[in-house]
UniProtKB/TrEMBL annotation:
Coiled coil regions, renumbered to chain: none
Protein name, per record: Exocyst complex component
Location of the Exocyst complex subunit EXOC6/Sec15 C-terminal domain: 400-752
UniProt superkingdom: Eukaryota
Keywords of the record: Coiled coil, Cytoplasm, Exocytosis, Transport
Length: 789
C-alpha cells in the first residue's frame, strides 16, 4: 500500500517519461519483450539498457527502504521461525516413533493382505474359467441340438440354431480350438442342408408334376359341372318360354365358379416349396433357388407340351390339356401364396410359351381330323380349359381364336355327315303318306317340328300329308343345329346367332335342296313320288320357321325377334322355288302319262264315214287317270298346288288336241272326226267342272275355272262344227266366239278339213244341201284366210 506513493515520489524527482513507462511495465509484470525487440530493430539498444539500469537502481532503493521500514517485524519473524523449527524436530521424532510402531503392527496385516489379494486373483480366474466353460458348454449344446435337427430333417431349426451360434457365441467362444472347429463345420452343415433340401424339393417337383393331371382334371370337372348346371337352367327356361310361362329375354349367361370353391377342392401341398425357399433365404441364396425352380419348371413345361404321336390325339387330348391346366393352376397358387418368390412376368412368359404351342398343336390336329364328333369333343374340352384358366387370370383369347379358325372345317365335316344322312333318308323314303297310330308318335313327328295343319289333335289312326322323309330330315337338321350351337357356344362370339343362321341356310340350300332337286330331276320318278316330294317340300318350307326359332332358343335369342317376316331364312325362298320345280316335274310326269293314254293320231279315225255316237274308249282311261291324280293330289297337296296340277293337266289336253290338228302327221280329217273329238272334249269339260267344284277351288279361284283352260280347243271344235265357219272372219263374231284362235293355226287346220272323201266313191256320194252350204262356207273361210295371210 505504501509502494505506490514511493513511485510517485520517484517520478516527481526527475524520471523521464520513458523510464516511467518501463518501470510501470516491469511493476505490473508485463512483457517487455516487444520493447527490447523494437530497440534492437531500431539499432538503439543503449538507451534501453540505460533505462533498465535506472529501473534496477530504483528497485534497489525501494527494497532498502522497505527493509528499513519492516526491520523489527523481520526480527520477530525470524525468532518465531526458530521456534517452529524446534517444534518440527520434536514432531519428526514423534513421527519416527509412531512409524516404527506402525511397521511392527502392519507387517502381519500386509501378509494377510497379500494372501487376500492372491485369493481374489484365484477367485477371478475361477469365475472367468466358469464363465468361459459355460459359454463353451452352451455353444456345444447348441451344436448338439443342431446336429439333432439335421439328423431329424428339421433344417429350418438347424439353420436357426447355427445362426444363433454365429450371432451370439462364435465371437465370444474363448477356446480357440473349439471356435475354429465350429467355424469349419458351419459351412459344411449348411451345404449339407442345402443339398438335402434341394433333393427333397426335386422329389416334390416330380410329385407335383405327376399330380398336375389330376389337379387339372378336377378343376376342369368343376367348370364342366357349372356349365352343365347353367345349360340345365337354360333348358328349363326354354321350356318355360315354349309354354308361354316366361321368357329368356335378352339376358346374358356367363359361367362363374367361385375361386374359393376351387381352392377348397384343389388341395395340393406347397409346403416343400415354402420350406425350401425359406431355407435358401436363410442361407442367403434365395435368387439361386428361384432360378433353380424356374428352370426346372420350364423344363417340365416343355416336356408336358410334347404330344405323343403314337396315340391318336382324340384319345390323349384330355390328358394333354389337363396336364397343362394343372401346371398353371400350381403356378397361380405359388405366385399368390409364396410372396415374392415367383414373378408375374416369369409366369406370363411360361404361359405365352404354352399357349403358342397349344394353339399350334390344336391347329395341326384340327386340320387332320375327319370327324365332326371328334373335333367337337376336343373343342368342348378346350373351352373348358379356357374357362378354367380364365378363373386364374390367364389370357385364353388365342385358344378361342384357334377354335374360331376351325369353325368352317367343323361345319364342313358336320355338313358332309348330315348330307349322307339326308341322302339316305330321301333315297329310302317310300313316298307314301305317313301313318301315325299313337299320340306320342304324332307329337314326335308332327308337333315337334310344327308340321300340324290344325291346332286340334286329330283322331288316330292319322294319315299325315307328308311321308316319313320329312320328320327324318327335320331330325337331321335339328341335330345339325344342335351340333353347330355346341361348337359355337363358349367361343369368341357370345352372340353367334347370325353365324348359326348362315350355316343353317347352308345345309338347307346346299344339301337338302340339292338332294331334293337331284331326286326331282331323276327320270325314273313317278307321279306319286313327284306329288309326295312336292308335298314334302311344302312342309319342309314350313319347318324352316321351326328351325330358325329352335336355333334362336338355343342361342338365347327371344323367339319374337325371329318371328318377323323379314327375319325368315333364305332357304325358305329356295325351297319354294324347288317346290315349283317339283310341281313342274309332277306335271311333266302327268302330261307324259296323258300322252300315252291319248295318242290321238293312233286312237282316232280321222276320215271315218260313220257318225260317232260317243267319246273314244281312250277317254275313259284319261278320265280315270285324272280322277286318280286329282284325288291323290287333293289328299296330299295344298290348294294352290292342286289347282296347278288340275290346270296343267287340262291345259295339256287342250294343247295336245290342238297340236294334233296342227301336226304334219295329220294330213286330213272330216266332220265325223271333229264330232268324235267334240264328244271327247265334252267328257273332259264335264270332268273339269265337276272337279273344280268338288275340290272347293271354285271358292278360291273364281275367275279361272278348269274349263277356262279348254277354251282354245273348244272354240276350234265349235268353228269346225259350225254351219257357217266363214263367220270367223267377222270381227264381232270372232271376238265373241273365237277370240283365242290364231289365224295361222286356223288356216293350217282348215286346209286339212275335208268334209267329203276323195276319190271315185266320194264323187258318187250323196250330199245334202246343208253339207254343201257348210262346205262352201268352209271353202270361203279357207280362201279368205289365205288372202289374209
Amino acid at each position: 500500500m505504501e509502494a505506490k506513493p514511493k513511485r510517485r515520489i520517484v517520478t516527481e524527482n526527475g524520471d523521464t517519461g520513458e523510464d516511467l513507462v518501463l518501470a510501470t511495465l516491469i511493476g505490473n509484470g508485463d512483457d517487455v519483450g516487444p520493447l527490447v525487440r523494437h530497440a534492437f530493430e531500431m539499432g538503439r539498444p543503449e538507451p534501453l539498457v540505460h533505462q533498465l539500469k535506472n529501473v534496477a537502481k530504483k528497485k534497489e532503493t525501494e527494497i532498502e527502504d522497505l527493509c528499513k521500514t519492516h526491520y523489527e517485524e523481520f526480527i520477530v519473524a525470524v525468532d518465531e521461525l526458530r521456534g517452529v523449527l524446534v517444534d518440527a524436530e520434536e514432531l519428526k521424532s514423534d513421527l519416527a516413533t509412531d512409524n516404527f510402531r506402525l511397521q511392527e503392527v502392519g507387517s502381519a496385516l500386509l501378509v494377510k493382505l497379500e494372501e487376500l489379494l492372491e485369493s481374489y486373483a484365484v477367485k477371478k480366474n475361477v469365475t472367468e474359467a466358469i464363465k468361459m466353460s459355460k459359454i463353451c458348454v452352451q455353444a456345444l449344446e447348441l451344436c448338439v441340438k443342431c446336429n439333432s435337427y439335421v439328423s431329424e430333417g428339421q433344417f429350418y431349426h438347424a439353420l436357426k440354431t447355427m445362426d444363433l451360434i454365429e450371432r451370439n457365441y462364435l465371437k465370444i467362444i474363448p477356446l480357440k480350438v473349439l471356435k475354429l472347429a465350429i467355424e469349419r463345420r458351419i459351412p459344411v452343415i449348411k451345404s449339407h442342408i442345402e443339398k438335402k433340401v434341394c433333393s427333397q424339393f426335386t422329389e416334390w417337383l416330380a410329385h407335383i408334376r405327376s399330380s398336375s393331371k389330376s389337379i387339372g382334371q378336377t378343376a376342369i370337372g368343376l367348370i364342366a359341372s357349372a356349365r352343365q348346371r347353367e345349360e340345365e337352367m337354360l333348358e328349363r327356361q326354354r321350356k318355360a318360354e315354349e309354354q308361354n310361362t316366361g321368357g329368356l329375354g335378352e339376358s346374358a349367361y356367363t359361367l362363374h365358379v367361385e375361386e374359393s370353391e376351387q381352392d377348397s377342392v384343389l388341395k395340393f401341398d406347397l409346403t416343400p416349396l415354402y420350406r425350401a425357399y425359406h431355407i435358401h433365404t436363410i442361407l442367403g441364396v434365395p435368387e439361386r433357388f428361384r432360378d433353380y425352380y424356374y428352370s426346372n419348371r420350364q423344363l417340365q413345361l416343355d416336356s408336358d407340351l410334347e404330344i405323343s404321336y403314337g396315340q391318336p390325339f382324340v384319345e390323349s387330348y384330355q390328358t394333354f390339356l389337363a396336364q397343362i391346366a394343372g401346371y398353371f393352376i400350381v403356378e397361380d397358387r405359388v405366385i399368390r401364396t409364396a410372396g415374392d418368390f415367383l414373378l408375374a412376368d416369369q409366369v406370363e412368359t411360361m404361359w405365352e410359351t404354352a399357349i403358342a404351342k397349344i394353339v399350334l398343336v390344336l391347329e395341326n390336329q384340327f386340320a387332320r381330323m375327319d370327324s365332326p364328333t371328334h373335333l367337337l369333343l376336343v373343342k368342348d374340352y378346350v373351352t373348358l380349359l379356357g374357362a378354367t384358366l380364365r378363373q386364374y387370370g390367364y389370357e385364353v383369347g388365342p385358344f378361342l381364336d384357334a377354335l374360331d379358325k376351325s369353325r368352317d372345317k367343323y361345319h364342313e365335316l358336320l355338313l358332309e355327315e348330315c348330307r349322307k344322312q339326308i341322302v339316305t333318308a330321301i333315297s329310302e323314303d317310300s313316298y307314301q303318306q305317313m301313318v301315325i297310330r299313337k299320340e306320342a308318335d304324332y307329337e314326335n313327328n308332327v308337333l315337334s317340328f310344327n308340321l300340324q295343319t290344325s291346332e286340334i289333335m286329330p283322331a288316330f289312326t292319322y294319315i299325315a300329308p307328308f311321308s316319313s322323309m320329312v320328320p327324318d330330315v327335320c331330325r337331321i337338321i335339328r341335330s345339325y343345329i344342335k351340333g353347330s350351337v355346341d361348337y359355337l357356344s363358349y367361343g369368341v362370339n357370345t352372340n353367334f346367332f347370325s353365324v348359326l343362321r348362315k350355316y343353317l341356310d347352308k345345309i338347307l340350300i346346299d344339301v337338302l335342296n340339292e338332294v331334293i332337286l337331284e331326286t326331282i330331276n331323276n327320270n325314273s320318278i313317278g307321279v306319286a313320288q313327284a306329288m309326295q316330294i312336292a308335298a314334302n317340300i311344302s312342309f319342309l318350307e314350313k319347318a324352316c320357321d321351326y328351325f330358325l326359332r329352335h336355333a334362336a332358343q338355343l342361342c338365347g335369342i327371344p323367339s319374337r325377334s325371329v318371328e318377323k317376316p323379314q327375319a325368315s331364312l333364305s332357304a325358305k325362298i329356295v325351297l319354294k322355288t324347288s317346290r315349283d320345280e317339283a310341281y313342274h316335274a309332277l306335271l311333266n310326269v302327268v302330261n307324259t302319262k296323258l300322252d300315252e293314254f291319248m295318242k290321238l293320231p293312233e286312237n282316232i279315225n280321222w276320215i271315218t264315214e260313220e257318225m260317232p255316237q260317243g267319246p273314244h274308249e281312250y277317254m275313259n282311261e284319261v278320265v280315270i287317270y285324272l280322277e286318280t291324280v286329282m284325288s291323290t293330289a287333293q289328299q296330299i297337296l295344298p290348294a294352290d298346288a292342286l289347282y296347278k296340277v288340275g290346270v296343267g293337266a287340262i291345259e295339256h289336253i287342250s294343247n295336245a288336241i290342238v297340236s294334233t290338228f296342227l301336226s304334219d302327221t295329220l294330213k286330213r280329217f272330216n266332220a265325223n272326226a271333229v264330232s268324235a273329238i267334240n264328244h271327247d272334249l265334252r267328257v273332259i269339260e264335264n270332268f273339269a267342272d265337276e272337279r273344280y267344284h268338288s275340290t272347293g277351288l271354285d271358292e278360291i279361284y273364281k275367275e279361272g275355272s278348269f274349263r277356262s283352260y279348254l277354251v282354245e280347243v273348244r272354240q276350234l271344235i265349235n268353228l269346225l262344227s259350225s254351219s257357217q265357219p266363214e263367220n270367223f272372219m267377222n270381227p264381232v263374231i270372232r271376238e265373241r266366239n273365237y277370240n283365242t284362235l290364231d289365224y295361222k293355226k286356223v288356216a293350217t287346220i282348215c286346209d286339212k278339213f275335208k268334209d267329203s272323201p276323195d276319190g271315185i266313191f266320194g264323187s258318187l256320194a250323196n250330199r245334202n244341201t246343208k253339207l254343201t252350204a257348210k262346205k262352201k262356207s268352209m271353202d270361203m273361210l279357207k280362201k279368205r284366210l289365205k288372202e289374209f295371210n
